[in-house]
Design brief:
By secondary structure, the protein is of the alpha+beta class. It has a five-stranded mixed β-sheet. A five-stranded antiparallel β-sheet has the order 16-15-14-17-18. A four-stranded antiparallel β-sheet has the order 5-4-7-8. A hairpin with a 6-residue loop joins strand 17 and strand 18 (386-392). Helix 1 packs antiparallel against helix 2, helix 12 (431-442) runs antiparallel to helix 13 (454-462) and helix 16 packs across helix 17. The structure holds 2-(butylsulfanyl)adenosine (IVH). 2-(butylsulfanyl)adenosine binds next to strand 3, strand 8 and strand 13. 2-(butylsulfanyl)adenosine (IVH) binds next to strand 3, strand 8 and strand 13.
């Protein structure tokens, strides 16, 4: 056996794989495939130095260590605005046409099933898969390459001769309905985790540390967009781009269509997809309509997190009828009591529904809802089921009453002035509020102490070890190791994760404090504006309102929070426990390179990371692909296609000494 012959075996197996998993047309029997795969494994064991990254044996790697590395998306991953009717859909494109100064009927609309899975960005460099990253908050996702590689319809190496230098393929990872049912059946028998729906199952699988599990679950991937790109090939339409992805070895969705914009076509297309829905192997929760012309897409751009050239037309909610058995009251992070409907379990669309939200007491009154009534429940996609109306009054009806005392701490319950909500007045004396607050503090969008999950927090609260957020930093190995199912090894890992999370950013810390109405983006705005905690805590309500998107309510909440002695003490305690962040140095706007986008290529004398952080400190954004938005290309020795691309686009090119000169003069 020579290396060339080995490569031929890899190629053959990959061809068979492609035919089976992408084209759905197997070329050989499973037995034949397995035999060849085993032969390949044998050859590789004998010749470890031959193994090439695209070998199918490389799909299942080692178990990864606990946390997933963060990956910053060069091109943001957006989400979509929703439309729930044909009118809303048409309205959206009429507005787009108006903005483009063309007539509505001139638009060519591309229609794709909206796959109900999770968004993924796959980065290929020079044809090889480098990583797969989740969407995260759109800007920063998580590296899940170990599981992505197990998806057979994702090529490890693109199927073309001259692959682009950089290509990020965006698409949906999903699980078919059949696989979902199988794994749930199995889980029931083995007392394993039962998933609520195929989307949760796909997401849960992607978050596994062990790629063997992902490999067994047969996830699939279908592309629908592009992220960072630096390559020769140009596309003028979305459909052309998807055709190109098919050439690269990806699956294409046979139900994609395009049509010229008019009311009848939208209506027809919706009917088509709705009648297809049941028979499709995967769950879809609507249709995505996109303007096919990429130049028009670019002209329209985005508004906040979603494009102005695409919209999701969602299918209506699933409806079911059941009996309201009881209403419980859950105490949230800020003490608000939420009524939760306990229902006679009903099975709908692969999910058993036994709880639904009731929002607040006004809603219960509006519905004229009593315990014992027959009710109609709606469920749309990932939304928590909702009670929408009473269909028949129960023979014996019992009134739903807001408790006068908190079901957890027995403090008085009071109605919040001018609002429908009732709140437990126990504050940080209430165990439920404490536990919810700790959960929130440790959660993904806050301090992101991944090891400290909600179940563990609940157990530690119950043990009386966690009584406040700051107790997280006082945890000892034994506190955790003594709990059921937690060993010393695990406890050490958890403490390490807590320690690591102490270094944060001002904005993240602010989010984690959980000031009412101050979410992630509000916290970012406040951090950017005030730069230091000291300045923020002393700002008055008027000053706070000068921050983008901060209105009177939020400003008052911030002020009230920092005027509260207990909260102030908590902030001090957290900092004393070691929570720190880098000072936000200077205002972005006054930074010398702000608004500039730089791309680095070729071999440079100084380490790339160093140059990158220098540029970022000066306010520049550093991107990995050249586009019309690139301000400068810093080209070192042996620069390749990025240099060509930059020349083509007329981007200013600097060599390393010119770059050093530029920064010296600052
Ligand atoms: S396009 C810039 N196309 O829906 C536009 N999204 O609700 C980005 N999704 O995060 C999305 N099928 O995970 C697009 N054919 C499709 C889709 C699709 C499913 C998901 C995607 C996105 C979410 C937005």
């Amino acid at each position: 056996m020579t290396f060339i012959e080995y490569q031929t075996v890899v190629k053959q197996l990959n061809e068979w794989n492609y035919a089976y998993h992408v084209l759905d047309t197997p070329l050989v029997s499973d037995a034949e495939y397995d035999a060849a795969f085993r032969q390949l494994q044998f050859i590789e064991q004998q010749n470890l130095d031959w193994i090439i990254p695209e070998s199918p044996t490389q799909r299942i790697g080692d178990v990864v260590s606990s946390a997933f590395e963060k990956i910053s998306h060069d091109v943001k991953m957006l989400s979509l605005a929703n439309a729930f009717s044909i009118e809303e859909t048409i309205d959206f494109f009429v507005k787009a046409a108006k903005e483009l100064d063309i007539s509505f009927s001139e638009l060519v609309i591309f229609s794709e099933p909206k796959l109900d899975g999770l968004a993924m960005s796959l980065r290929y460099e020079n044809g090889f898969l480098v990583y797969g990253a989740t969407r995260g908050d759109g800007q920063v996702g998580e590296n899940v390459t170990h599981n992505i590689k197990t998806i057979q319809s994702i090529p490890l190496k693109l199927k073309i001769e001259n692959p682009p230098e950089i290509l990020e393929i965006r698409g949906e990872v999903f699980m078919t309905k059949a696989v979902f049912e199988n794994i749930n059946e199995l889980a029931k028998i083995e007392n394993g985790r039962v998933f609520a729906n195929p989307r949760n199952a796909a997401a849960g699988t992607i978050r596994q540390l062990n790629p063997k599990i992902a490999a067994e679950r047969n996830l699939q991937f279908i592309p629908y967009g592009i992220g960072a790109y630096s390559g020769e090939r140009e596309f003028s339409t979305h459909s052309e781009m998807l055709d190109y992805f098919a050439l690269l070895g990806f699956k294409s969705n046979p139900h994609n269509q395009h049509f010229s914009a008019n009311e009848h076509h939208f209506e027809q297309d919706y009917q088509r997809m709705e009648s297809l829905r049941e028979s499709l192997p995967m769950e879809i929760d609507g249709i995505v309509y996109k303007i096919d012309d990429l130049a028009l897409q670019e002209k329209l751009g985005f508004i906040s997190r979603s494009p102005k050239w695409a919209i999701a037309r969602k299918f209506p909610a699933q409806i079911m009828i059941t009996t309201l058995l009881e209403v419980d009251f859950q105490v949230g992070r800020t003490g608000v009591l939420t009524p939760v409907a306990r229902l006679e379990p009903v099975f709908v669309g692969g999910v058993t529904v036994s709880n639904a939200t009731l929002h607040n007491m006004d809603e219960i009154e509006r519905l004229n809802l009593y315990i014992g009534d027959k009710v109609e429940i709606h469920r749309a996609g990932d939304v928590i089921p909702k009670v929408v109306k009473v269909v028949a009054e129960g023979e014996t009806r019992r009134k739903i009453i807001m408790p006068t005392h908190c079901p957890v701490c027995e403090s008085d319950v009071k109605r919040i002035e001018n609002q429908a909500a009732f709140r437990c007045t126990g504050g940080l004396k209430c165990a439920a509020q404490i536990a919810e607050r700790i959960k929130y503090y440790a959660s993904r969008n806050c301090m992101n102490i991944r090891q400290l999950g909600t179940k563990l927090i609940e157990a530690l609260c119950e043990q009386g070890v966690l009584n406040s957020v700051v107790d997280i930093y006082r945890l000892k190995i034994d506190d955790i190791a003594n709990l059921e199912k937690q060993g010393e090894k695990n406890a050490t890992k958890i403490l390490a994760a807590i320690e690591n999370s102490k270094k944060t950013t001002f904005a993240t810390f602010l989010t984690a404090l959980g000031i009412p109405e101050v979410g992630e983006s509000g916290a970012k705005n406040l951090a950017r504006h005030f730069k230091t905690l000291e300045k923020l805590c002393t700002a008055d309500v008027e000053t706070l309102q000068t921050v983008p998107d901060v209105g009177l309510v939020t400003a008052t909440n911030v002020r009230t929070f920092f005027d509260d002695v207990t909260q102030n003490q908590l902030v001090d305690d957290l900092r004393a426990a070691g929570v720190t962040w880098d000072e936000i140095e200077s205002d972005e706007i006054s930074q010398p390179f702000s608004g500039q986008t730089w791309v680095l290529t070729g071999t440079l004398n100084s380490p790339r990371n160093e140059i990158k952080s220098k540029l970022e400190k000066l306010g520049a954004k550093v991107s990995s692909s050249v586009s019309t938005k690139t301000t400068y290309l810093l080209a070192g020795e042996a620069a390749g296609s990025k240099l060509t691309q930059a020349k083509k686009l007329g981007v200013t090119i600097l060599n390393e000494s010119q770059f050093l000169e530029q920064i010296e003069n600052l």
